[in-house]
Design a protein that fits this description.
Blueprint: H1 13-18, H2 23-51, H3 62-97, H4 106-129, H5 143-146, H6 151-179, H7 192-223, H8 237-271, H9 278-291, H10 307-319, H11 321-335, H12 344-367, H13 370-376, H14 380-410, E1 412-413, H15 416-442, H16 457-487, E2 489-490, H17 501-504, E3 519-521, E4 537-539
Antiparallel strand pairs: 1-2, 3-4
């Protein structure tokens, strides 16, 4: 029982971290690694915005500009948002939330992390060898087939390795969630973050092979002289787009559904109310997961397919807004009449996620309509849309979750006043960066261009200033987290008086095997209001 209580002998750093199979340490390694990649991707974004600060700038030559937005998109999606939400938050929280001592397959869990790191290093090696891909994160043929150098080959290899990591992680989460829940933890008593992570795992499991097929055939066309995408030889470049977006649009929900799960955990704690519509929020995640595989071709309305073929995808693209709206209205109902405490996590959730994500969702409805998308496709209106979704949504939720579970992970508290200043810097910077892009796009500026007409100078300068403000906030956020980890005041086991198992039945930070004894769950995790602070689980 010594190991079960965390009373273990001191291990070397190599055994403690490099050889660990502890899901919590693996989650922390995912987080630290992803943050490093986040700053690399963020620097690429600042290079882009610096070039666009003036209409005739030549600070960055055209080929380097192409490399910057290619690496920015690839890093932020594959090496930051997805691994941070599923790898870091999912690994650390899911086993504790369901009352398990670890993941179902601990060694496979460790392998998933090391594959993620390897995939990231392979992509970063393109900087070292001087062969940076410049075809955009979508790598559309025929341009990608004709691209010179090893940059695209490294990109494809990285995507393959990262895809394998995602598939192994998805299998692990699915088995863990279905088979390792504590006694009394029925499906309808699972925390909503666990629901979100489960749906995300199924999306990754079924969607990632399509991406693997797309990039494999791309590589074969480049080096084995196959003709999958060679029109002259009977190939079809649109096949690549179908395969790519069959994964990559569901991947949007890989980046947003876990973020929604984080929001669903934070709101009832700081509103001191039970979550409104638990089943509606949980089952709407399933609806999003299913519908996510039926909307991919809305990225291809201008790719040459028949107009009539786009109508079904327009309909599904509009329908998928319904389960998202269900979540938002249930969150608002949970806030209504609550005793709201605007802590830092609550600011990021309410003003940050709900406010900014809603803007991105509304512009998404616009782009989901074929007639409008024909005019707005590949303009900066699209850039504004998906950044409000992924930065205003996913990024805000990631930071909210970091502050919320920071006492649990570190056993320390951060300084609330500083954290709130950082939030408002983020909030203002995000809107300054991305809101002007709506007008820039409506005025016809295409994305992926490094010069533009002088009449759009002022709007682009506002956007560039906002980007540097976001960069400042990001740096301040990481510095605060590091300082609080080393020097913060000691946190209690449950500083938020929350009801889920990681707060009620585990120390801060948790012991090696999470619990001193197996939890027995007797009620749902969101019993606030009439039963403030009541523990969700009894100790067997």
């Amino acid at each position: 029982m010594a190991a079960a209580t965390g009373d273990v002998k001191r291990r070397s750093f190599f055994r403690e971290w490099i050889l660990t199979v502890d899901h919590k340490k693996i989650g922390i390694m995912y987080a630290v690694t992803a943050i490093v990649f986040f700053f690399i991707g963020g620097l690429a974004a600042l290079f882009i915005r610096t070039q666009l600060a003036m209409p005739g700038n030549m600070i960055i030559p055209p080929d380097m500009f192409n490399q910057a937005f290619t690496m920015h998109g690839t890093i932020m999606i594959f090496l930051w948002i997805i691994p941070m939400l599923t790898g870091a938050f999912g690994n650390y929280l899911v086993p504790i939330m369901i009352g398990a001592h670890d993941m179902a397959f601990p060694k496979m869990n460790a392998l998933s992390y090391w594959l993620f790191l390897l995939g990231g290093l392979v992509l970063m090696s393109s900087f070292v060898v001087g062969a940076i891909p410049e075809v955009g994160w979508t790598a559309y043929p025929p341009y990608s087939i004709q691209s010179q150098g090893a940059g695209l080959d490294l990109w494809v290899t990285s995507v393959h390795i990262l895809g394998l990591s995602s598939i192994l992680a998805a299998i692990n989460f699915i088995v863990t969630t279905f088979n390792m829940r504590a006694p009394g933890m029925t499906m309808n008593r699972m925390p909503l973050f666990v629901w979100a992570n489960l749906v995300t795992s199924f999306i990754q499991l079924f969607g990632t092979p399509a991406l693997a097929g797309a990039v494999t055939t791309l590589l074969m066309d480049r080096h084995l002289k196959t003709t999958f995408y060679d029109v002259a030889a009977g190939g079809d470049p649109m096949l690549y787009q179908h395969l790519f977006w069959f994964y990559s649009h569901p991947a949007v929900y890989v980046m947003i559904v876990p973020a929604m799960g984080i929001v669903s955990e934070i709101i009832p704690v700081f509103a001191r109310k039970p979550i409104f519509g638990y089943k509606a929020i949980a089952y709407s995640s399933i609806m999003i997961g299913l519908l996510g595989f039926l909307v991919w071709a809305h990225h291809m309305f201008v790719a040459g397919m028949q107009l009539s073929a786009g109508i079904p995808f327009m309909i599904t693209s509009l329908i998928i807004a319904v389960p998202t709206a269900i979540k938002i209205f249930n969150w608002l109902a949970s806030l209504w009449g609550g005793q709201i405490n605007y802590t830092t996590p609550m600011l990021y959730v309410t003003f940050g996620f709900i406010g900014l994500f809603t803007v991105g969702g509304l512009s998404g409805i616009v782009l989901g309509n074929v007639p409008l998308d024909l005019h707005l496709h590949d303009t900066y209106f699209v850039v504004a849309h998906f950044h409000y979704v992924l930065f205003g949504g996913s990024m805000m939720a990631i930071i909210a979750g970091t502050y919320f579970w920071f006492p649990k992970v570190t056993g320390k508290m951060y300084k609330e006043s500083t954290a709130k200043i950082i939030f408002w810097t983020y909030f203002i910077g995000t809107n300054l960066t991305f809101f002007p892009m709506h007008m820039i796009g409506l005025n016809g500026m295409p994305r992926r261009v490094f010069v533009y007409t002088p009449d759009l100078t002022f709007l682009n300068q506002i956007s560039t200033a906002g980007a540097f403000l976001v960069g400042l906030a990001s740096l301040a956020f990481v510095i605060q987290i590091c300082v609080a980890t080393m020097k913060g005041e000691k946190a209690s086991a449950n500083p938020w008086n929350a009801n889920t198992l990681e707060w009620t039945n585990a120390s801060s930070p948790p012991t090696e095997f999470n619990f001193e004894a197996l939890p027995i769950v007797t009620e749902d995790p969101y019993q606030y209001g009439e039963k403030p602070g009541k523990s969700k689980g009894n100790i067997a």
